[in-house]
Design goal:
This protein is α/β, with parallel strands linked by helices. The protein has a single domain, classed as 3-Layer(aba) Sandwich (Rossmann fold), CATH 3.40.50. Helix 3 runs parallel beside helix 7. It starts with a strand and ends with a helix.
Length: 234
C-alpha cells in the first residue's frame, strides 16, 4: 500500500532523514519507535506532504505522492494526526471536524462520516458546540483523530498520540486506534510509548539519527534484549 524508498529530508542544511525506506501493507498497523530527535516527526510530515522530501519516492497504491501539494496528498488518502494535536481552539468541535472534510470526496460523505466519528468518540458528540480549546487533553486528541478521519483516509499517520495523556486515557486512545484499523484503515504510528506502540502493531521499525536501524515483527522487537535495554528500561 505505502512504499517509502530512499527518502532524504531535512531543514535548511541540516539533514534529518538519510535514505529511509519502509512499507505499510493494506490493513496493517506499523509502529515507528526511536529517541527524541531521531527524525520520527519529520518522517510523518514528509509522508503527509507537510514537508518536502529532498530525494526518494513515496508511493500510495501506485500513486506517486512525492512533490504533491499537501491538499493533494490528503485527497489521495493520507491523513495526519500531528504531535501536540493542533486543534483550532477558538472553533467548536463540529467546526474542527468539518475542517477535516474539506476535499471534494470527503464533503460528499460528510454526514455519514460525522456520524461514524461521533460513534467512536461519543464525547465529541456530547461537546459538539463546545470550543475545542476548552476540551481536556484527551478530548483534544480524540478531536484530532476524528478530524483526520473526516477525510476518509486509506492511511492514517499518528504522531505521538499518547503524548502528555494520563495512562487510562492512553489506553482508551489505543483501543480506538485498534478499532479504526479494524474498519480497514491502515495506520503508521509514531510513538515514544514503545511497549504500547509495538503491542498495537504487527510490525515495527526503529529509527535512530534519521536511519532505520532495526525492523521486524513487533513481537520480535519487543523480545529484542538490546532494545529492551535501550528503550524499555529493562
Amino acid at each position: 500500500m505505502l512504499e517509502v524508498r530512499d527518502v532524504t529530508a531535512g531543514y535548511g542544511k541540516a539533514q534529518a532523514l538519510w535514505g529511509l525506506s519502509l512499507e505499510v501493507a493494506e490493513g496493517e498497523i506499523v509502529t515507528i519507535v526511536g529517541p527524541n530527535g531521531a527524525g520520527k516527526s519529520t518522517l510523518v510530515n514528509v509522508i503527509g506532504g507537510l514537508q518536502a522530501a529532498w530525494s526518494g519516492s513515496i508511493v500510495l497504491d501506485d500513486q506517486e505522492l512525492t512533490g504533491l501539494a499537501t491538499h493533494r496528498v490528503c485527497a489521495s488518502g493520507v491523513a495526519v494526526v500531528p504531535e501536540g494535536r493542533r486543534v483550532f481552539p477558538e472553533m467548536s468541535v463540529t467546526d474542527n471536524l468539518d475542517m477535516g472534510a474539506y476535499h471534494r470526496e470527503a464533503r460528499q460523505y460528510r454526514d455519514e462520516t460525522y456520524e461514524y466519528v461521533c460513534g467512536i468518540f461519543p464525547r465529541l458528540a456530547e461537546r459538539s458546540e463546545q470550543l475545542a480549546g476548552s476540551l481536556s487533553g484527551g478530548e483534544q486528541q480524540m478531536l484530532a483523530i476524528g478530524r483526520a478521519m473526516m477525510s476518509r483516509p486509506k492511511l492514517l499517520l499518528l504522531d505521538e498520540p499518547s503524548l502528555g495523556l494520563a495512562p487510562v486515557i492512553v489506553e482508551t486512545i489505543f483501543d480506538i486506534i485498534r478499532d479504526i484499523n479494524q474498519t480497514g484503515t491502515s495506520i503508521l504510528l509514531v510513538e515514544q510509548n514503545v511497549v504500547e506502540g509495538l503491542e498495537l502493531a504487527s510490525r515495527g521499525y526503529v529509527l535512530e539519527e534519521g536511519r532505520i536501524v532495526r525492523e521486524g515483527a513487533a513481537a520480535d522487537l519487543l523480545d529484542d534484549e538490546e532494545l529492551q535495554a535501550s528503550y524499555f528500561g529493562m
